[in-house]
Amino acid sequence: MAAPATPCPRSWAGVPIGPPPVTGGPVVWLLAGYPLWWALGMGQFAYWLFAVPMAAELVRRHRTVGLRLPPGFWMWGLFLLWCVLGLAMVPLDVPGTVPGSGGLAGAVLRVVNYLVLTVLMLYVGNLSERELPTRTVVWSLSVLCLATIAGGYLGMLAPQFEFTAPLEYLLPGALAADPYLQTLVHPASAQIMDIFGYESARPKAPWEYTNIWGYMISLLLVWLVVGWVLQGSGVTRWAALAAAAASVVPVVHSLNRALWAGLVLSLVYAALQALRRGRVVLVGACAVACATALLVLAASPLADVVRARADNPHSDDGRAASNAASVAAADLSPVLGWGTTREMAGSSESIAIGPTADCPGCGQHVIGNAGQLWITLIANGWVGTAFLLAFLAWTAWRHRATASPAGQGALLTVLLLFWYMFFYVALMSPLAVTMVAVALLWRGDAGPTPGRDAARASGGLR
Predict the structure, then answer these.
(1) Which of 98, 133, 238, 300 has a CA between 20 and 30 Å from the CA of residue 30?
(2) What pLDDT does 102 receive?
(3) CA-based torsion, 230, 231, 236, 240: positive or negative
(4) Does residue 313 sit in helix, strand or coil?
(5) Whole-angstrom Cα distance, residue 33 to residue 203?
């Protein structure tokens, strides 16, 4: 006798609002519930927490119906192997860097994070459409998008807002005082930075850094549009459009130029996809709407923020020097890299310029912290970097013809990494969303396998 079908989540205007499927619950709780984990001080560690039940489910499936791997997984597997082998290079000093500046703890943490994201990708990819509907994943990402927009406004309106998270009370004093760990576990609404010659607030809630906020809002807006604009209806669609429009204000105040360009690239991608399907009128209407929005923006106070940011490049010289140092480090160890990041000796102007009591931030920039490409180059060399990028490029190429809204959103999510990797480190949350997108693409073209329901056998993202 056939097993009873698992009931689908209830929906309102095409958006699932009911309880998530039992099997896929960890994904929903992780993504939609992320603001809660951030408030508890867990943040990135929530991925570790939910990886435990995900890994247990993968082990169970491996023993019963078998575990599936995405096409080209061998490239990702080799990248993971390279990360582990690179740990042997951590104790070595890189020429032109501060001796002893490579930390084994940070390198191991990075490897663990990659393994956790591997579990997330395999978990989503191995669940059937009945166990974890694509629309439920899209709903979770859309909810997270709304929380990120709200966090942007919190950072603008209450830039000093912060509080001690419950997890902080449980940490030993030495760990709680560590600056890097403080960034991970101490909730705050904004980063206060000197960009224009005076302190200004750049929103970051519910993320660790304003750059991560920028990367995440760019990815999550894709899913808000896919789930609640393209696939929603009535009040849901208009509310999602209003939320997307409202995100412009914190996006501008984030001062993230790469984010601004990334949003333009996303619009170009959407226009090309629409033109490819002959929707010329729709593209024309959207172009008129965008032009009108730009005129409104130019007449608003936000235009002054954009102009001021353009006149104050701020970190460009330091980023260029750090990126060049990443390439030089990869040239010195092209196969394995150096296992982790290092600190520059001096600054971009002179090796004699370093931190002082009056300028603690001068010199000794961390090599690799300016983008996922650069951190992978110094940590894993040219070979390891090739494995990482080849896996994502192969995934994008394999699914270049995907036609469903969810499939196109997943493809754009993967493609955006090839832009943001020059400016933002993707590990942890942005790469987590990217791995979910990879899993949805892979799951969408899968054929029938043991233990998978008939709805999956037909393929296609829904």
Answers:
(1) 238
(2) 84
(3) negative
(4) coil
(5) 20
- Segment holding 260, helix H or strand E: helix 257-276
> By three-state DSSP, how is residue 287 classified?
helix
Cα 146 from Cα 128, distance rounded (Å): 27
pLDDT at position 446, please? 53
In this predicted model, what pLDDT tens digit does every residue of 324-336 receive, in sequence order?
Answer: 999 999 999 999 9
For residue 97, the SS3 value is strand
DSSP per residue over 320-364, as a string? Answer: HHHHHHHHHHHHHSTTTTTSS-EEBSS-SS-TT----SS-TTSS-
**pLDDT recorded at residue 346:** 60
pTM of the predicted protein model: 0.87
Give whole-number Cα distances, 300 to 304, 312, 390, in Å: 8, 20, 43
Nearest to 203, CA basis, from 86, 311, 51, 305: 305
Both structure tokens of 441: 């693409």
- pLDDT value at position 12? 46
- Asked if 338 and 329 count as a contact pair (C-beta separation under 8 A), the reply is yes
Chain centroid to Cα 370, Å, comes to 15
The residues that bridge with 342 in the sheet, in sequence order, are 367
Q: Which amino acid is at 345?
A: A
Q: Kindly tell me the sign of the dihedral angle through the C-alpha atoms of 177, 180, 182, 184.
A: negative
Q: Average pLDDT for residues 239-265, to the nearest whole number? A: 94
